[in-house]
From TrEMBL:
<comment type="similarity">
    <text>Belongs to the Nudix hydrolase family. NudC subfamily.</text>
</comment>
<keyword id="KW-0378">Hydrolase</keyword>
<dbReference type="InterPro" id="IPR049734">
    <property type="entry name" value="NudC-like_C"/>
</dbReference>
<dbReference type="Pfam" id="PF09297">
    <property type="entry name" value="Zn_ribbon_NUD"/>
</dbReference>
<dbReference type="InterPro" id="IPR020084">
    <property type="entry name" value="NUDIX_hydrolase_CS"/>
</dbReference>
<dbReference type="InterPro" id="IPR015797">
    <property type="entry name" value="NUDIX_hydrolase-like_dom_sf"/>
</dbReference>
<keyword id="KW-0479">Metal-binding</keyword>
<dbReference type="Pfam" id="PF09296">
    <property type="entry name" value="NUDIX-like"/>
</dbReference>
<keyword id="KW-0460">Magnesium</keyword>
<dbReference type="Pfam" id="PF00293">
    <property type="entry name" value="NUDIX"/>
</dbReference>
<dbReference type="InterPro" id="IPR000086">
    <property type="entry name" value="NUDIX_hydrolase_dom"/>
</dbReference>
<dbReference type="GO" id="GO:0006742">
    <property type="term" value="P:NADP+ catabolic process"/>
</dbReference>
<dbReference type="GO" id="GO:0005829">
    <property type="term" value="C:cytosol"/>
</dbReference>
<dbReference type="InterPro" id="IPR050241">
    <property type="entry name" value="NAD-cap_RNA_hydrolase_NudC"/>
</dbReference>
<keyword id="KW-0520">NAD</keyword>
<dbReference type="InterPro" id="IPR015375">
    <property type="entry name" value="NADH_PPase-like_N"/>
</dbReference>
<dbReference type="InterPro" id="IPR015376">
    <property type="entry name" value="Znr_NADH_PPase"/>
</dbReference>
C-alpha cells in the first residue's frame, strides 16, 4: 500500500472510507480511484503525520472496496480528527468548484498553491474560501437552561440558540440580537465557551454561555418551533456529541451540578 499520501475522496456528498484497514477505518491511501473522473486534488493538511489531499469523484463503479459515509457519520465512524479534516476538505472542494470563474470579470481562475486562493489572471481578483461565522448562546437561569428547537431539527431534539453574524456586527451584539429575536429574552453577562468549524456548509460556530437578564419566552414562529426553560436534571433530547451544542450543554450541566 502507498502510505506517503492519504486521500479524502468525496462521492455524491459522502466520504469514501477504507473500512478494511486493520488499524481501523481510515481515509484512502491508494490511488485506484484516480482512473475515474475527479476534480483537481487540493492539499488539505495531514492525517497521521502524512500529507492529505482531497478530491470529488463524479463516478464510482459498484463493488469498489470502500464505504461511503455521510460527513456527519464520520465522527462516530473514524473519530473527531477525521471529522474535522474531512469537514475542511469538503469546504475546500465546494469553494474550488464554485469559484472556477472570476466573480468580477468572468475569466477562468487558477488555484494558487502557496495559499488557499482562486486567482484571476485577467483582473487580479483573489477569491478565498467562504467562512460564515455564527454565534451560539446557552442562556442560564439558576439551575435551568433555555433550550429551543427549530422545525429542521430531528424530532424531539432541543438545543442552544444560534444565528449568523451580520455585517458590521460584533459577536456579542449578534448573541444579544439573536436571543432577543428568536425568543424575546434579554441576556446579561456572557462568557466565551469554545468554537467549532461546522462544514454544513461553511460555518464557524462560536459558543457563549449567557446569564438571563429579563423577559418572557416568546418564540419567533418563523425560526423557533418550541422553547422553554429546562431543569438540568430533566433535559429533553439533545444534539449528538459531534456538535459543539452538546459540549456546551454538557459543560453547563457539569458546572451547575452540586
Amino acid at each position: 500500500m502507498q502510505q506517503d499520501v492519504y486521500w479524502i475522496v468525496r462521492f455524491q456528498q459522502r466520504i469514501l472510507i477504507d473500512t478494511f484497514n486493520p488499524e481501523g477505518p481510515s481515509f484512502l491511501n491508494h490511488t485506484a480511484f484516480l482512473q475515474y473522473e475527479h476534480t483537481p486534488p487540493i492539499m488539505v493538511g495531514h492525517w497521521n503525520g502524512v500529507p492529505c489531499y482531497a478530491t470529488d469523484l463524479s463516478e464510482l463503479p459498484e463493488g469498489f472496496p470502500v464505504e461511503a459515509v455521510h460527513l456527519r457519520q464520520l465522527f462516530s465512524v473514524a473519530g473527531p480528527e477525521a471529522f474535522a479534516l474531512a469537514g475542511r476538505a469538503t469546504q475546500l472542494i465546494d469553494w474550488q468548484s464554485t469559484h472556477q470563474f472570476c466573480g468580477r470579470c468572468g475569466s477562468p481562475t487558477q488555484l494558487m498553491h502557496h495559499e488557499y486562493v482562486m486567482h484571476c489572471n485577467a483582473c487580479g481578483l483573489n477569491s478565498y474560501p467562504r467562512i460564515s461565522p455564527a454565534v451560539m448562546v446557552l442562556v442560564r437561569r439558576g439551575f435551568q437552561l433555555l433550550l429551543a428547537r427549530s422545525p429542521h431539527f430531528r424530532p424531539g431534539v432541543f438545543s442552544a440558540l444560534a444565528g449568523f453574524v451580520e455585517a458590521g456586527e460584533t459577536l456579542e451584539e449578534c448573541a444579544r440580537r439573536e436571543v432577543m429575536e428568536e425568543v424575546g429574552i434579554e441576556i446579561g453577562h456572557m462568557r466565551y465557551f469554545e468554537s467549532q468549524s461546522w462544514p454544513f456548509p461553511n460555518s464557524l460556530m462560536i459558543a457563549f454561555v449567557a446569564e438571563y437578564a429579563g423577559g418572557e419566552i416568546t418564540p419567533d414562529p418563523s425560526e423557533i418551533e418550541a422553547a422553554d426553560w429546562f431543569d438540568i436534571d430533566n433535559l429533553p433530547r439533545l444534539p449528538d456529541q459531534v456538535s459543539i451544542a452538546r459540549r456546551l450543554i454538557d459543560s453547563a450541566v457539569r458546572e451547575l451540578l452540586p
